[in-house]
UniProtKB/TrEMBL annotation:
Keywords: ATP-binding, Nucleotide-binding, Transport. PANTHER family: INTERMEMBRANE PHOSPHOLIPID TRANSPORT SYSTEM ATP-BINDING PROTEIN MLAF, PROTEIN TRIGALACTOSYLDIACYLGLYCEROL 3, CHLOROPLASTIC. This is ABC transporter related protein. Gene3D superfamilies: P-loop containing nucleotide triphosphate hydrolases. Residues 5-241 form the ABC transporter domain. It comes from the Bacteria. One of its GO terms (molecular function) is ATP binding. Signal peptide: none annotated. InterPro entries: AAA+_ATPase, ABC_transporter-like_ATP-bd, ABC_transporter-like_CS, P-loop_NTPase. Residues 255-300 are annotated as: Disordered. Pfam families: ABC_tran. It comes from Intrasporangium calvum (strain ATCC 23552 / DSM 43043 / JCM 3097 / NBRC 12989 / NCIMB 10167 / NRRL B-3866 / 7 KIP).
Amino acid sequence: MGVEIAVTGLTKTFGSQTIWRDVTLTIPAGEISVMLGPSGTGKSVFLKTLVGLLKPDAGSIVVGGQDVPRLREHDLYEIRKLFGVLFQDGALFGSMNLFDNVAFPLREHTKKAESDVRRIVMEKMDLVGLTGAERKLPGEISGGMRKRAGLARALVLDPEILLIDEPDSGLDPVRTSYINQLFIDLNAQIDATFLIVTHDINTARTVPDNIGLLYHRHLAMFGPREMLLSSEEPVVRQFLNAQTVGPIGMSEEKDADELAAESGQELPPLPPIPLQLSPSNGLRRRAQREPGEWCRTHAVTPPPGSFASADHAIPYAAGLAPAGALASRSGEVG
């Protein structure tokens, strides 16, 4: 079972530069959350602050009942054992083969016998589809395989929280789809709390249970996937639908002249909300919601064509699904 991360009033500056201020959100235990934002908005800084590598100027990060920024070094060392981290490039040791890379945290932080180390490493490598590649060096494998090896290493200590920094960087769309499915399958198996930082809109629209957006030195919004994908909030709408009309410009925010020139322009319609990815075995994850559940509960009309399967879309009448309409499609999870 994953662990909840409760963030309150978090502020981080570097000198006179404010990265973000007064960030407050709760990352639910055992769910997959995604953090988005234009380049330079401090998404990676946010991950480093959660795990205690950087100290905030103000605010709290409560993990397992402990406030991370206020822990002494020894206690911080212990709380970090709850975390597994997948870095952008995998961060593998180039002189070690994949087996030794994955084994490194076990040899560094535990006193397990080498037979136990081998069993655990092979189990995690099998989990990410790398059985048979354990003797290869990082320079001998593809970028996608390096990502999976980094993920196996992040999993060897059985973390309750996984922080994943831009897993799609350097990957083509097909490999990105494979690793997205892997995150869904892993969450179904280990029930850990996932926080994924990404720029990939398809990942944000199809993978997470929750989405957050950092923009202009603050948290613009955080909540269930359907809430953000149906949102009319300008910056959320623009970013999640990759539109040019809105407050985000080439240098993060547009100037007054650009915004004035756009005033009165008709916004393109919101695209349909896709079905969320399901585990490969067809079973429901614990955190998974019925497609359209949030929209139905909050009386929000989703964009036309939302929650479409291969054959048809889930019907909505006057913005709400008829009673039992979603339940009757229980075999199709969202």
